[in-house]
């Protein structure tokens, strides 16, 4: 993450350490995110100002490729730091980082020049609409968006049921199938400010209602060439797919770490009986360390084209989701009745953990991907 000199500043007293991006993100999470975490969970707050504040300290730009190489570790650790406090914000952080990942890897220079700096700095917020396409690639769903070639771009129609980290001035990346060339796919950036794009509020979720999640309708949206991420999209998806999944590990790592804290916080009053439970904080500490180490190794090489590497990424994501649910379940059992009170951190963590396990690619899809080879 840079040389020692890059992490020092000079003042009248000499060289003093400069906090790393992850340290600054963690401080914002403790001091600014923690007070509004419950409101984000309940859906009364969408933290646009906080997300832009995180952009100010570099949270959205650390994984931008340099000379055809990228390291996702800082981004993943930053998401984890948010996830220790608020699973919903960790998810929005994944959405934002994924949008940057798409833009930064696009071969379309006009698009990169127009959007990358704004997205990486947080001036432009947004997310990813690849849930349906990712399912379609593995035979689970059919693509819901269709597009036809016109002069200067494409016209797109259709609807996506859930896209997150959105607002009226946000953007997101997604994929359509060409009507004039069935089987061919194109990836593009959708602008929520366009009159042809309609954001439809969703039914309340079990958790994380403040994530700016909407159903999105496209009514003959004109997508100019400068907003095309990749045409055709197939090779591009293979480039960005490992990063798409690995960045999700931050949600799991942060949540598991806080579940361990929850269990330890009740050791004094309940340890005499909790010691009979089969899973203890030390078990999850060891598991979290294993997951973090494996994530760090894979995150250093997200463009690795080897199929063995890809299977390791998928398997890691599966383990991370299952570990999240197990850790949150254990935290609830350790807390007992006090954890069953609405608003208790343990019950929120349990609801957030199920989201980690079902967000695309969900546990069942990951198992299918591994089984299909």
Q: Compute the gyration radius: what is it?
A: 21 Å
> So, the CATH homologous superfamily of the largest domain?
Butyryl-CoA Dehydrogenase, subunit A, domain 3
Low-confidence stretches: 1-11
In CATH, the architecture of the largest domain is Up-down Bundle
The residue fraction in helices comes out at 40-55%
Give the structural class. alpha+beta
The number of domains: 3
Succession of helices and strands: EEHHHHHHEHEEEEEEEHHHHHHH
Number of strands: 10
Q: Specify the number of helices.
A: 14
Main CATH class of the largest domain: Mainly Alpha
Instruction: Calculate the mean pLDDT score and round it.
Output: 95
Q: Given the C-alpha coordinates, what overall shape results?
A: globular
Terminal CA distance: 35 Å
CATH topology name of the largest domain: Butyryl-CoA Dehydrogenase, subunit A, domain 3
For the largest beta-sheet, the strand count, sense and barrel status come to: 8 strands, mixed
The percentage of residues in β strands lies in 15-25%
């Amino acid at each position: 993450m840079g040389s020692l000199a890059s992490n020092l500043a000079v003042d009248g007293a000499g060289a003093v350490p400069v906090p790393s991006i992850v340290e600054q993100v963690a401080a914002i999470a403790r001091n600014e995110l923690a007070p509004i975490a419950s409101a984000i969970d309940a859906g009364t707050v969408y933290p646009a100002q906080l997300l832009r504040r995180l952009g100010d300290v570099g949270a959205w730009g650390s994984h931008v490729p340099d000379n055809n190489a990228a390291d996702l570790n800082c981004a993943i650790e930053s998401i984890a730091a948010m996830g220790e406090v608020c699973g919903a914000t960790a998810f929005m952080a994944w959405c934002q980082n994924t949008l940057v990942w798409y833009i930064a890897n696009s071969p379309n220079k006009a698009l990169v020049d127009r959007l990358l700096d704004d997205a990486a700095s947080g001036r432009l917020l947004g997310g990813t609409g690849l849930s349906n396409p990712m399912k379609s690639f593995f035979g689970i769903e059919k693509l819901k968006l269709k597009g036809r070639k016109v002069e200067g771009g494409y016209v797109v129609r259709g609807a996506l049921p859930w896209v997150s980290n959105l607002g009226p001035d946000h953007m997101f990346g997604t994929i359509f199938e060409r009507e004039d060339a069935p089987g061919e796919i194109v990836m593009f950036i959708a602008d929520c400010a366009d009159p042809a794009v309609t954001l439809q509020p969703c039914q309340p979720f079990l958790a994380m209602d403040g994530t700016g999640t909407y159903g999105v309708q496209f009514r003959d949206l004109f997508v100019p060439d400068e907003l095309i991420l990749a045409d055709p999209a197939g090779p591009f998806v293979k480039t960005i797919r490992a990063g798409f999944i690995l960045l999700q590990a931050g949600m799991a790592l942060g949540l598991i770490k806080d579940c361990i804290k929850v269990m330890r916080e009740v050791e004094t009053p309940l340890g005499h009986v909790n010691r009979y439970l089969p899973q203890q904080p030390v078990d999850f500490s060891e598991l979290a360390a294993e997951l973090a180490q494996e994530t760090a190794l894979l995150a250093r090489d997200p463009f690795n084209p080897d199929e063995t590497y890809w299977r390791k990424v998928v398997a890691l994501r599966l383990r991370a989701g299952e570990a999240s649910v197990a850790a949150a379940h254990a935290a609830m059992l350790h807390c007992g009745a006090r954890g069953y009170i609405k608003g208790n951190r343990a019950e929120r963590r349990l609801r957030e953990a199920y989201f980690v396990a079902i967000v695309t690619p969900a546990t069942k899809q990951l198992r299918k991907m591994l089984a299909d080879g």
